Predict the structure.
Amino acid sequence: MIKIGVTGALGKMGKEVIKAVIQAPDTELVLAIDIFSQGEDIGNIVNGRPNGILIESDINNAIQTKKPDVIIDFTQPKTIYENIKIYMKNKTKSVIGTTGLTEEQLENIKQMSKENNTGCFIAPNFSTGAVLLMMFAKQASKYFSNAEIIELHHNQKKDAPSGTAIKTAKLMAEVNPNFTLNNCPETELIKGARGAISEANIHIHSVRMPGYIASQEVIFGSQGQIFKIKHDTMDRSCYMDGVLLATRHLYNNNEFIYGLDNIME
């Protein structure tokens, strides 16, 4: 049985993770961390029935007393890096779903993972469908000269572009160095009209709108044709298969991994 702690337990994703951990046959919830509702039973809040796991706010103390095998963290970009340093200090493996980490921070985490001999699994997106979109986009990049990415999220998402869009662009850039072939010189009449320019000159357009959860479309073009790949998230429960897949992998392996695509066949 894998003993699981959840940081950001009262968030929308945190609650979904707790439900999934409780329902899975091989995982056991031993710890719930959040800055709100300290001392309340997380089972009452999430499922309407107590499970004896009381919400705690001190991550360091909670890990040392409950000793989870893996911490699953869905918190905020401004706190995630410091959280990971606490997990590393305590040699506790962590599955990270919070986006917003910089390239420098990712490199530092990779080094910390090695130095502390402690696994860390970071994924911009845990939806298996979204990960397949990224994998298919990389494959399609071999055959198209131009591409742009549109990502759409709810209006409470704090970082832009999304981690999924950034990861998608990186994968596409691995097989094609330039996605603006034969584009004419451009003048933006309003700054930002053409979106952010990412890896391999891929333009990324971010939309923030109530009603969305998460959607992404990659548009490919070449002479005489357009090819589109799109994924829509309808419910946050779609992330749970990926979260549990990453958790099980990390439990049996001790390494730094960035992206669910690394363990999907």
In short: The chain is about 35% helix and 25% strand. The chain has a mean pLDDT of 96. Helices lie at 12-23, 42-47, 59-66, 77-89, 103-116, 128-140, 163-173, 240-252.
